[in-house]
Design a protein that fits this description.
With 114 residues, the chain is of the alpha+beta class. It contains 4 helices and 7 strands, in the order αβαβαβββββα. It has one domain. A hairpin with a 2-residue loop joins β4 and β5.
């Protein structure tokens, strides 16, 4: 996540979602942040020869703060949903939720999944 936060700057504008273009533009919304993070995690798993033990998923969902869906408080279509990453252990089925945008703003490393 640190690599994603140091490489990208958040933007509310329409941005590319392809990781090779994100490296050039350095601007992304939550879709780009999640795509970039998923790509980095997959690369690091492959480097460590762990790619068969873990699955990386780019997900779309909603943001809850203290059990309150905050997406419904915004009129903008930009906030209708939110992108994040899950990493699943193939053997144990443990699933870890990671949100690169939330990390960039609040330094929260894991998110709770509903």
């Amino acid at each position: 996540m640190k690599e994603t936060a140091s490489t990208l700057s958040f933007s509310f504008d329409k941005c590319d979602h392809e990781t090779d273009k994100l490296v050039e533009t350095k601007k992304a919304n939550c879709i780009g942040y999640s795509a970039f993070l998923a790509s980095v995690i997959q690369f690091k798993l492959k480097q460590s020869e762990l790619q068969n033990d873990w699955k990386v998923h780019h997900n779309v969902g909603e943001i809850y703060l203290m059990n309150e869906n905050i997406n419904r408080h915004f009129n903008s279509g930009f906030f209708k949903d939110h992108d994040f990453v899950t990493v699943e252990n193939v053997k144990t089925k443990e699933t870890i939720g990671i949100d690169a945008t939330v990390y960039d703003y609040f330094r929260i490393e894991r998110i709770k999944l509903k």
